[in-house]
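Note to self: user wants both folds in one dump. Writing first protein now.
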Amino acid sequence: MILFIGAFAIMLMLAANQWANDASPIRSVGAIDATIKSAQWRDGKYIRYVLALNDGSYVLIDDDRSHLIGSDASIERVTRDNGAVFYRFPE
């Protein structure tokens, strides 16, 4: 019972953190060049892509559109007012 309550509390805290990030306004958006390294289907709803940035680091991006593995892509680095950073494909 204690384990169940603890797991529920952790899930609630993570959800609250995501809600706070979604509610925070966007401060800046910057374009970045990257290369698509791999893709994985997630529940048939979207695809999770692994992209290599030009500085050698990797990022994960979820998208419902298909992109060619091995191709160059322009992505956006989005920074919110609360400091949260995420990456996305441009619309």
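First done. Writing the second protein, which came from a different request thread.
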Amino acid sequence: MSAPGDVPEEILVRLRAVCLALPEAYEEPAWIGVRWRIRQRTVAHAYIRDPGDECVMTFRAPGEEIIALVQSGHVFERADWGDNVVRMTFTDDVDWAEVAELLTESYLIQAPKRLAALVDRPPLP
């Protein structure tokens, strides 16, 4: 098992700020990297696959959003497991506002309805 320290600190700080602000979400070490969960469901998982690789994160997304994300560019790809799992590679020009939206959406997919209802979402344009 790797440690949360395997994920760059600047990435951990930003992911923690979003994930731990969600109702009852918690952080724990995973078999590799670190993950954020609601109850026993994973909202996001950040890790480095092999030494020297870039840091990646998996999260949940609705089907139509998966298609849009994957078609948007190289930082997003479908994970090789799960119907609604997307993998994102962290690059130097990561859009942290977008990451926050993606994490919130992943939480809403995984959380019980009662907890999801507590999350403030920005109004749709």
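Dump finished. Worth passing along: DSSP finds four helices and six strands in the chain.
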